[in-house]
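Researcher: Here's a chain I'd like modeled. Treat it as a single chain, no partners, no ligands.
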Amino acid sequence: MKTTRSKNWTAICASVLTATAVIRAQADQPATAAKPEKSYTGTVVSVDPKENTLETRGFLFTKKFNLGDACTYTLLDNSSTINGLRPGEKVTVSYQDANGVLIADRVEQQPMRYTGMVKAVDPAAHTLTLHIGGMDKTFQIADGCGVALRDDKSGTLADIQTGDHVTVTYETPDDKLTARQIAQTSMEFTGELTAIDLGAKTLKASAFLTSKKFNVADNCAIVINGRTDGQLSDLRPDEKLDFSYDEINGVNVVNRIAPAKEQTSSVAAIHAPSPMTSN
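Model: Modeled as a single isolated chain. Structure tokens:
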């Protein structure tokens, strides 16, 4: 009799232990298993902060995402919320596909940039035309477009001159190239021209105790009377000039040559009409 009771008690204990182990195992599992994450890169078509949705267009397809509560945002203007998203931005969305419902976990903006020579700036029309590899591209300049000069200095659109080499960071709202930032890529030197070698395409200029030698780039813009199609032979010794150049492994490659700004201003002042006087 004691043996039977002992066996029954052992069986009951084993059942209890088994049930406890099952409950603990179930508790350790997440309520919903996470889906494998995917990624998609496209241009923002629309964003709805109220509905927490984002629609993007890729090369062939459009995708609409639900923005998860814990979704993170990495945008070029340092925004970290849904309110920083706008149509025309290129983004990579990391998401889960829950039976056809796309849920975004991360949205990261991808910079779109062009680097080239400024062919024209129209402050009235808010446009900038860039010459890139034999072709021209015209950008609408967005309100609040930043202008970055060399040495991390901020500037304005007035600092961007025809012939400058710049990098334009842009977006494409309504499929229009729209500049969000313009950054100068060249250094500046102002000095008097002391030597020209037309055959070697080199120049020398000096200012105070500093002298520099420049190798002239094939696409160098030489500004003569406001035009950028001047020739080296148009330059004259002792002329004071502004040189925009890049230093590459110790070699100065000039990409823009123009009359010095202060010289241009003084010439304009000399030729300005004098005020009328009455007798």
